[in-house]
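Data availability (excerpt). The following record was deposited with the supplementary files.
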Amino acid sequence: MRTYLLAPGEDVLLIGDAWVTTKAGTETYGVDRFFSRIAGKPVPGVSRFALALVSRRERQAFPVALEQVVREPVTAQAPLPVAAKRKPGRPKGSSTQAKADAPLNAEHTRISAMIQGLLTRIGASLTLTYLVLDGHFGNHNAVLMARRLGLHLISKLRSDSALYYPYDDIYAGRGPRRIYGERIDPHAIPEHFLKQTTVEDGVETHIYQIEARHKTFDRPLNVVAIVKRHLTTGKQAHVYLFSTDRTLAWDVLRDDYHLRFQIEFVFRDAKQYWGLEDFMVIKETAVTNAMNLAFFMVNLSRRLMRDRQDTDPNRSVLDLKTHYRGLSYAEELIKLLPEKPEPGLLRRILAQVTGLGRIHPLPADRLTG
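Predicted structure:
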């Protein structure tokens, strides 16, 4: 990755996301019912969680790790005994567990081990500071996972999240110190938090940056509130992005979360061009190999397309596949000739045959040799 896809000193983000591949039958390893965002409902298939590095400069994602999500089989359990009725209030001798010491759930434990393995392999080759995940991970458990890995989390909160301004009144001198101020109304945020206002296609967008608290998080969050209002209908909507890095600028936080979507293009290319949904194997090792090969081909094709940028500026993945398929055909054809063509004719044959079936035609100088 460092040698072939990233420039020296590249500023990169670590992003992760899950994807579901539909599968018929019950024999494929790990097949189960998983929720598909495309279908909007649970579908039979296999699921995997992928990690990718995103170049802030190139604005492109490169997959680096993949792990299949396998659910544990459900076993019959004995009915739980009926709990004896106890007195109201806290049991004697119990203590409050600090939010920072809360255990990770099974999903975050699995992802944490996966990220830790990747960080160990990377070592000092790259410097990773931010982990970017979608709104499914906009919770305190994910924040703890990122913090214990030495990373800052960038994610999205639910739109109905109860956020509070930090309490800034004078301490009354008795009782615990308050940390929660008034609840944030996304449509009545004070002007001194405003960072940008734009109007486009009849929609007015206000962007605010607030250091806010949420009662399920143990520390304040760096929140960017994006509030949109339709100027004709008056309808309003808002989005809360957040980071655990309270020094991160609002525009960088917003842009980094937008870059998370680059992993969706990785999934698209692996599915559309490299057989991620077409493999017919069912054994564990074969399924793992098929998935990893599809993602490896995404990286390889992007490097090959980058190398052809100057000589073939209109290239696409389909053009790249057509080129190498035609090259293979041309080589087999040349083997049947009684004599090897002279170099000029050979170049023209290769250029002509490898251009057959392309979506974007080759430049004229390539065809004439």
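Summary of structural features: The CA atoms of residues 252 and 258 lie 10 Å apart.
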